[in-house]
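Next comes one such specimen:
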Amino acid sequence: MIKNVVIIGAGNVATHLSKAIKNAGFNILQIASRTEESARELGTLLDVPYTSSADDFNTSAELYIYSVKDDAILSALSTFTPRRDALVVHTAGSVPMDILSDFSSNIGILYPLQTLSKAKEVDFTQIPLYIEANNNTNTDTLLAFASTISERAKVVNSATRAKVHLAAVFACNFTNNLYSIASDILEKAGLSFDDMLPLISETTEKIKTLHPRKAQTGPAIRRDSKVIEKQLNALSGREKEIYKLITESIQDEKF
């Protein structure tokens, strides 16, 4: 049974995850981060001990959560090394679980499917939380823990989790970049991106009840060549290439 947790990392995911863990009644023994400032910020927010020093790292927890950038996981493990028998997990979407195997005999994944920013509160209980572990006992333990902080905790393997993360890049990260392009176009016209918000909200609401293909609208699906040509002529460089590629992708769909 997990009672005590140490969280390594103090970024967006670590911040929201640690809040959810504390709200669920678990004891966070320590926040560890490579920089004193970030460790202090999150530790102070949660009113829990914090450190940026390997010498002060707490090794008495049952669960260690490494919530850092993908390419910083091994470095964080080497700096803040857990007990060999503790349950050690990371929160990355596309990093295999086996990266943890040199540091513990009990390893797993705790991956929240959500875009997270420190300044924006979220209801963590509604965030899909994908877990994986290296044996049945650890799977049961981690699933029980995850289920206390999210109503949507589920077990998936690394290959499936990688596909989920890939889908999230398309659905969230790429879409947000398109929002940024739209914002630039509006700003050049002297308008605010706020004008797009009702449209974005309606699109989001629509795909809650319709498959995205069924919700598709616009000149591409209508094959309105005159509008498409006019809009292409208004663009240049990368934005023009993106418009062409997505238009072709829409028209290649089987509706």
Observations:
- The mean pLDDT is 95.
- The chain has two domains: 4-156, 162-252.
